[in-house]
Amino acid sequence: MTLPRKDLFVLPEGVTYLDGNSLGPLPKTAAARLAQAAEAEWGRMLIRGWNDAGWMAQPARLGDAIGRLIGAPEGTTVVGDTLSIKVYQALAAALELRPDRRVILSDTGNFPTDLYMAEGLIRSLGQGHELRLVAPEAVAEAIDEDVAVLMLTEVDYRTGRRHDMPALLARAHEAGALTIWDLAHSAGAVPVDVTAAEADFAVGCTYKYLNAGPGAPAFIHVAPRHAHVTPALSGWLGHAAPFAFETGYRPAGGAERMRVGTPPVLQMAALEAALEVWEDIDMGEIRARSIGLSERFIAGVERACPDLALASPRDPAQRGSQVSFAHPEGYAIVQALIARGVIGDFRGPDILRFGITPLYLDEGDIDRAVSVLAEVMDGRLWDDPAYRTRRAVT
Amino acid sequence: MTLPRKDLFVLPEGVTYLDGNSLGPLPKTAAARLAQAAEAEWGRMLIRGWNDAGWMAQPARLGDAIGRLIGAPEGTTVVGDTLSIKVYQALAAALELRPDRRVILSDTGNFPTDLYMAEGLIRSLGQGHELRLVAPEAVAEAIDEDVAVLMLTEVDYRTGRRHDMPALLARAHEAGALTIWDLAHSAGAVPVDVTAAEADFAVGCTYKYLNAGPGAPAFIHVAPRHAHVTPALSGWLGHAAPFAFETGYRPAGGAERMRVGTPPVLQMAALEAALEVWEDIDMGEIRARSIGLSERFIAGVERACPDLALASPRDPAQRGSQVSFAHPEGYAIVQALIARGVIGDFRGPDILRFGITPLYLDEGDIDRAVSVLAEVMDGRLWDDPAYRTRRAVT
Fold first, then answer.
1. Does the keyword Hydrolase apply (chains A, B) (predicted)?
2. ipTM, 2 decimals?
């Protein structure tokens, strides 16, 4: 075992961090890389940085680095924008490839922004598309010949329930539907192979398990067989010749056409440092350790805190890399935990979320989290008005 | 005169920087502010930064700071995404507000990405909208009752020609059309008052005259009378209650609904530092100095370099804050200048661009630029194969 690699991250004293599924910690090299991008590149190269520091090529280069983590071949993944925008691009492309179908199938556990972006696109298209939402367990049987595209988040953001991606993909393709996989809670968390699974489109963010910082850019993977599609968000950096400044749009080759506007160079610098961490990491080992730590956490919490109900699947094979419990006072409990240095988060109506990130968590962290949680539950320490005031971000 | 404020910026030794119209220099406080966002906020607060460091509120707060520079009232401007995305949002909103009209009127001098994004939207809408392009000089007379929206960049990126925004706005409104103003080359460059001019939508970037760094986020202003429109890019941070995680989209109030996904927190930190510079700056003084320096530059170049043809309007009132010259060897000439520390840029087919930024340029800089340009032209120093190799970014 070569995990954890705590030495690679800034982990504040007195904090047990179980929220890497929401925002990963600062990689030690990221701050220096950011300073370099600001001072040596922006500051000294000025506009020359686009060529001399390689800013222009970075979205494709970092896309390829993410591609290696999700089984995507070179040139099929590109970085930029936010995940919401990448969902929109993938969905618009998929619907264009299935002009005779009108159903976007998703599940009620999907992350809301994916559903909202679909709503907005459907309104713009004005062609009577329907966003059909079913329970996560009902997805397989809801796939029929009306479905243009199956759009799912592989790992549920609330419960950590993991869809059987290869099986659903096979079923979707059998029915003639395309698929979009939101890998927000998968990339860097569980082994993914978009090529083996024959995914059509995959999107994801980089600020959770990939540790690229708050508001880090998203990624999109387009299977080579779909790379001819005309992007709905057809921006100049997705143009075949951006510096020819033509008045008409001509898409670049491959996934590069999914670039839109100017990339966020400073965020890219942090992302670059964050991705270097993965060069030495084996995803199989991550997964094995994630399951081990998760099982230990579940057993510990169930033993010490009988009032908390497991909200994640009990079978590790059906989970991503997070464990959730339900409790009507979930919000206050999480606040009481945070006040004591154990950081998880809350998702309404009653879910306490804990991210299990073997890159920088070990058994000692898990045990400490269990013991603080037991203390908070045993002593009803959450029952304090200060912990009930909802803040903007939960 | 309180300008220039060279003390506020990192200006590399030996460089005369006339490309702030493409990428502004590093404000001295920005690197420290970035380090703070990375180390003290992301590093030490981790996920708590969203509340404790105010990350969630920042796009509206920085939007208001930009609003003050363009005459927009509080709550009507918000920051995020790229300018391409903001153009798309404004255009989708405007077309929705004019459902009975089909023409998007723009000019052939508009920045290509604005036109490309319009193309993409028109395809998605599939309602037979038409992007009608006319010469910049022909815009006024092309405004008729078929026009749904007039979409223009106030200052032409190639020539620096400045549209008469109030006059075109009045004419558009008379014809029942809405207007979108791309202020990419206006905000921080020339006085703008979107309220007095009754602009419907305005968008812009922050990495040019606002000096917020490579890939800094864009902004969008929505006139309060249009703030009820349903966003086409309906992401979760434009939702009325993002942390309620509802499955259906309900837009937030005012311009906040034009937020889409998670804001780029690190880029926002640099933007915040960059906007603080403007608190003490008078846009009237910027404009007066810009005209003074531009006139000095034009006179100097015309005297010393007869082969360069002025490509900008001669009347300062019709220019933004840049001066362009045309020459068939423009690309090589610009490379020869850059090699000698005078940084401008090139836009095909033959335009040499020079940004005039009184915030950190003075008469000495202008005179030095003129003399190096004269040297390059007199000695045909551009006539070197090394200067003819086109790089990715020109």
1. yes
2. 0.97
Distances (CA, A) of B188 to B100, B290, B373: 36, 11, 27
What pLDDT is stored for residue A1 in this prediction? Answer: 56
Which CATH number do you get for residue A316?
3.90.1150.10
Burial of A2 (0-12, 13-18, 19+ CB in 10 A): exposed
Q: Is B94 buried (19+), middle (13-18) or exposed (0-12) by CB count in 10 A?
A: buried
The number of residues in chain A equals: 394
> Is A270 near chain B, with CB under 8 Å?
yes
Query: Is residue B310 classed exposed, middle or buried when 0-12, 13-18 and 19+ CB atoms within 10 A define those classes?
Result: middle
Final residue in a domain of this structure, among A218, A249, A280 = A280
Block residue for tokens 């194969």: B385
Same domain, B222 and B88: yes
Among B280, B310, B331, give the residue marking a domain's end. B280
Sort out which chain B residues have CB atoms less than 8 A from A34's CB and list them.
34-35, 38, 266
| A94 & A108 share domain | yes
Residues B249 and B358 in one domain: no
Q: Which residues form the domain of A238?
A: 56-280
Structural domains in chain A (count): 2
Cβ count within 10 A of residue B256 = 20
Q: What is the pLDDT of residues B19-34, one digit of tens each?
A: 999 999 999 999 999 9
Provide the total of helices (H) and of strands (E) in chain A, helices listed first: 11, 13
How far does the CA of residue A344 sit from the closest CA of chain B (Å)? 9
Residues B291 and B228 in one domain: no
The answer to whether residue B104 is domain-embedded is yes
CB of A379 less than 8 A from some CB of B? no
- The answer to whether B317 faces chain A, any CB pair under 8 Å, is no
